[in-house]
Design a protein that fits this description.
Length: 421
């Protein structure tokens, strides 16, 4: 029977869960410290990809051996605030242990279960709403300097192929037809069909939220102080207001630890600080998004702007944005599009929530009845948001095994640990 739900977090996962429950007749309140689509949300600042083929875990095979060299290379897309390293280690060590070939193969299959129908999931979620206008479908490419560079990623390519993602190949002549402004440094690409992208991720989430509230849902802007489990779990706001419901859904991303810990299970969620540049009124509009493989950032055509998004920095939730990742994006973008011009550029840094095994946390904890966890989308949070939201809604309705297998709360990789600072 339909009941009440509090969804804490108004990003793509929270809004997806709220829309699904509301369509089933539930009385749903979404709570967030900022409005849906606000730049402070992780869902705002991403490449906009619906990346079906992005199935390889963040801890890809061999990463443990490459990481020291990457951290010392100023042109590497990996950054670390060294003062943060002691707080990172409890997360980093199990993260690196997951980069063995056997573990990476297992995790890849588990990620693929979430990404396989991502385009269809977004189309279903947005159908009949103002958000639908932001959806595009088409190809997605990984662009390399040479075929040899592509072949050097044999382990990663094999993991994708094992999940059915075998690309077409483009040589320099074929690349020039698709991307006539592409710089001469890049001469090969792996092309994956049947992908999608969002042309303004912040506006997309905001439009979904407006549809939710226009159909009887409620949005409450406020800071959550604590959450308590029980037959009717409660959320206490920082202003003292107390709310209860049949189910509380924690879709709180990189900020999940403080709310999860008092309820028996603390996920070691770490912030992978991601960066983007949005160039407005750019003179170049690619036919579709593509990943610059050596620099590990994505270029996406969006509504009135071109976005370059990527980079990984470990530095916690509190430190301000670093300048070096922005400088690196600018430098490498000049190699990708040497003739690029634009009227203005906007810079953004945000927090991608990642667990040590690169899998999300979905489900209830045995120690905290009626609190449903839903976070940990790492680089593919936008891609899998509607799938996670639907899973959460099914768990709330009692139609899904709350254990949720590989994504279960309390699995290996969950640790009582201090907050990311």
């Amino acid at each position: 029977m339909p009941d009440t739900a509090l969804v804490i977090g108004a990003g793509i996962t929270g809004i997806s869960a709220a829309c699904s429950l509301r369509r089933d007749g539930w009385r749903v309140t979404v709570i967030d410290r900022v409005a849906p689509g606000d730049p402070a949300q992780t869902s705002f600042g991403n490449a906009g990809l619906l990346a079906r083929s992005a199935v390889v875990p963040v801890s890809e095979p061999g990463l443990w051996a490459r990481m020291p060299r990457m951290l010392l290379d100023p042109s590497s897309p990996l950054f670390l605030r060294y003062a943060y390293l002691p707080r990172l280690l409890p997360w980093l060590l199990p993260f690196l242990r997951n980069s063995t070939p056997a573990r990476a193969a297992r995790i890849t299959a588990q990620i693929a279960e979430l990404t396989c129908d991502s385009v269809d999931r977004h189309q279903s979620l947005a159908a009949g709403t103002p958000a639908a206008k932001y959806l595009r479908t088409g190809d997605y490419a990984y662009v390399y300097r040479s075929r040899a560079d592509y072949q050097s990623n044999a382990r990663t390519n094999a993991l994708k192929a094992a999940q059915g993602y075998a690309p077409d190949y483009l040589d320099r002549a074929a690349l020039e037809k698709r991307f006539p402004d592409l710089g001469p440094a890049y001469g090969f690409a792996a092309l994956y069909p049947d992908h999608g992208w969002i042309t303004d991720p912040g506006a997309y989430v905001a439009a979904l939220a407006r549809h939710f509230t226009s159909n009887g849902g409620r949005f409450l802007q406020g800071e959550i102080a604590t959450v308590t489990a029980g037959p009717r779990p409660r959320a206490i706001l920082a202003n003292g207001e107390s709310l209860e419901a049949a189910k509380i859904i924690l879709a709180t991303g990189a900020w999940s630890n403080p709310l999860a810990r008092p309820n028996g299970q603390t996920a070691r969620v770490e912030s992978e600080r991601g960066y983007h540049l949005s160039m407005h009124d750019a003179n170049i509009t690619p036919a579709h998004p593509f990943m610059v493989a050596d620099a590990q950032f994505v270029v996406t055509p969006m509504n009135g702007f071109l976005r370059a998004a990527g980079i990984v920095e470990f530095g916690g939730l509190q430190a301000p944005a670093s300048q070096a990742p922005f400088d690196l994006l600018k430098k490498q973008l000049k190699q990708v599009f040497p003739t690029l011009t634009f009227a203005r550029v906007e810079k953004w840094m945000g927090h991608r929530p990642t667990l040590p095994d690169s899998l999300p946390a979905i489900g209830e904890s045995p120690d905290a009845p009626n609190i449903i966890h839903a976070y940990g989308g790492q680089h593919i949070g936008l891609t899998i948001g509607p799938r996670l939201g639907a899973m959460v809604a099914e768990i709330a309705r009692g139609r899904w095994n709350s254990d949720t297998g590989a994504y279960r709360v309390g699995r290996r990789g969950f640790h009582p640990a201090p907050d990311s600072g």
